[in-house]
């Protein structure tokens, strides 16, 4: 277990976590963490020892060269960073990692210990999955919670998924049993454009995080990148009549499934987000 020394006292910290790998279709969720780390200039806290959790023949280290000599090696691991977002009254701990190859239970218990040391009582875990959602419609976000009452308070659409899980599912279960409130959010990435990046899904997750935590999120260039991404996919689909027909079928199926009141809720949520950001003087 890593002991944290010389750590500044954190104010009502919340954890936001995402992992590259199985849980990260289109790299949409890990991109949220990379974006927040850069925008908030997050300060490193600690990193887990990669020897304990990674098979380096499966998840290989990255070498950087300079003038024919090895300059550095970056090992696959999980890192914790901390930031105080502008306009927020609490600290945010970012947990950014790669899904471990082994010892998942020990890995999750180590995360629990770090959360206890840091005084974290709420964890928000982000993931992305491949789905048959059309790229032309708003990105569906579903979730799961450690407390059923929490879902009602947050007005969160709960997932009905049962089956194989990744580190997000195991970590949420472990954190919940350790007494932390946990929320997982999953963005649906169209399976016919699975390759990263997917800024539209990243932006959708970021906006949902903002809604849940009531912390202003820095959108940066993501709205423009999301529009450019959708336009690019439109152009590619238009070049293939079969793909265009398939997208149209998905759109019709999606529109038929969405209830009018659900669309009204989405419009109301978007308007409330706009008002909050206007009052704070933030963009987007």
TrEMBL record:
<dbReference type="Pfam" id="PF09754">
    <property type="entry name" value="PAC2"/>
</dbReference>
<dbReference type="InterPro" id="IPR008492">
    <property type="entry name" value="Rv2714-like"/>
</dbReference>
<protein>
    <submittedName>
        <fullName>PAC2 family protein</fullName>
    </submittedName>
</protein>
<dbReference type="InterPro" id="IPR038389">
    <property type="entry name" value="PSMG2_sf"/>
</dbReference>
<dbReference type="InterPro" id="IPR019151">
    <property type="entry name" value="Proteasome_assmbl_chaperone_2"/>
</dbReference>
């Amino acid at each position: 277990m890593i002991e944290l020394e010389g750590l500044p006292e954190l104010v009502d910290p919340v954890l936001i976590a995402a992992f590259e790998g199985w849980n990260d279709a289109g790299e949409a969720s890990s991109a949220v963490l990379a974006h927040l780390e850069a925008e908030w200039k997050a300060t490193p806290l600690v990193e887990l020892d990669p020897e304990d959790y990674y098979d380096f023949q499966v998840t290989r280290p990255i070498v950087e060269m300079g003038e024919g000599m090895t300059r550095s090696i970056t090992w696959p691991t999980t890192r914790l960073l901390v930031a105080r977002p502008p306009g927020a009254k609490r600290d945010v701990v970012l947990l950014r990692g790669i899904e471990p190859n082994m010892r998942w239970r020990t890995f999750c218990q180590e995360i629990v210990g770090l959360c206890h040391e840091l005084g974290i009582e709420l964890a928000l875990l982000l993931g992305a999955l491949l789905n048959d959602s059309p790229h032309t419609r708003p990105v569906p976000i579903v979730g799961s919670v450690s407390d059923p009452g929490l879902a009602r308070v947050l007005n969160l659409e709960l997932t009905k998924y049962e089956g194989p899980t990744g580190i997000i599912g195991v970590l949420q279960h472990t954190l919940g049993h350790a007494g932390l409130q946990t929320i997982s959010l999953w963005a649906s990435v169209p399976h016919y454009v699975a390759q990263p990046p997917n800024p539209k899904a990243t932006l959708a997750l970021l906006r949902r995080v903002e809604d849940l935590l009531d912390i202003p999120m820095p959108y940066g260039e993501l709205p423009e990148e999301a529009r450019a991404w959708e336009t690019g996919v439109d152009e590619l689909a238009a070049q293939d009549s079969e793909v265009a027909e398939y997208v149209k079928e998905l759109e019709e199926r999606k529109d038929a499934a969405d209830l009018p009141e659900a669309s009204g809720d989405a419009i109301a949520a978007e308007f409330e987000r706009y008002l909050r950001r206007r009052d704070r003087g933030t963009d987007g």
